[in-house]
Automatic annotation (TrEMBL):
This is FAD-binding oxidoreductase. Residues 34-215 form the FAD-binding PCMH-type domain. SUPFAM superfamilies: FAD-binding/transporter-associated domain-like, FAD-linked oxidases, C-terminal domain. PROSITE patterns: FAD_PCMH. Keywords: FAD, Flavoprotein.
Amino acid sequence: MNSLIEQLKTIAGAPNVLVDGDLTAYEQDWRKRSRGKALAVVRPASTTEVAAIVKACAAAGASIVPQGGNTGLVVGSTPDESGSQVVLSLQRTNAVRSIDAHNLTMTLEAGCILQAAQEAAEREGLLFPLSLAAEGSCTIGGNLSTNAGGTQVVRYGNARELCLGVEVVTAQGEIWNGLSGLRKDNTGYDLRDLFIGSEGTLGVITAATMKLYPLPVASLTAWAAVPTMQDAVELLALAHRHLGAGLTGFEVMGQFPLQLVARHFPQQRVPLYEQSPYCVLLENSDSESEDHARAQFERLLELAMDKGLVSDAVVAENIAQARQLWHIRESIPMAQVEEGLNIKHDISVPVSAIPKFCEVTDALLAREIPNVRLVNFGHLGDGNLHYNVQAPPGVDPAAFLREYEHRVTTLVYDSVRNFGGSISAEHGVGSLKLDKLEDHKSPVALGMMRAIKRALDPQNLMNPGRVLNP
């Protein structure tokens, strides 16, 4: 493999081929659950360099692990322990190539940080609506490879719905320029959708053309306390009826995850959580005026209170207050980190089934593990819950994980299946859910997926051991 490393140095430049020193940032996953060993970390600066690197690896039979910001939660972008895999970091391919204001599109390189894309659009008076907690470090390529969701899916859809075209380096090192800005193109199979959500197992996304929207004239945020999860679902339906397309965010948060934020980040003032089992965060984006948006919001909340769906609520008075409320929601994962290791589930079920799913699954877990603590929060507007399980008070988190992870995950996933849901809503499969997919995906679907993998990556060099077993 020494000759391969020399080739890689020739392609990307010796300073951009890392073989020794501290490679933790590339070899360890974000949750610190897995640490691998790379043959080399290569940091190309262009699509042409990516193609040359893939060709060299294919000729040498070396497998490739594409990597963006390495913020994934399913151990899908770090190398295994063999020391034979090349980590292909896209962080240097980070340009905003173009913005077409009339076509409402922007073309970004895969290593572009999500927040940088948002800011570039805003400078042009436009909105790029993909938004998630890791937006300061995750990249567009990673967002597309996992079909990321985030907080505004209820209005704008997942990363797939926001993408019009992609540029891809295939497993053979060829470049496919599919960077179409077209909203209509009925010329056969939609190859774009093959690569979005494939987690780097079919090829390397090197750039993408994404949809933009006009900036709303006003965007208001409200925080409401709701007595039950059923009330939260009823409030969502009411918000759809009264706000229509203006409803751009609808998040639900259980009392315990909000307790964690209040405990570990006391500088954040968490409203209303002590008096209610659940709180809901709503966002209303208006194209008319702030007064119109506020009147809509206040009418919605009055109706919700009259119906007993909301016990109390606050509406942010300015942008700073709105950001503080959203920051509380986005701090839940970090508060969990402070509390200790936990068992994470990124699941989706039909919105109408969420209250019963929670009732049944909460009871099953409580029976299985006395005093277990449930960190239940997420994107209620699109049926996606982060249904996480924390050790009982006083129990060592690492020991809890070792003893209960398989049992708890099996219980939760079986319940998800019973309610017609999915075991991965937005985080992907990676290696963490690889074996579980066999039990929760149709054999026919798995067969078609394997046929696509064999056709596009016959050497099984692209991120092997992720998403699919051979």
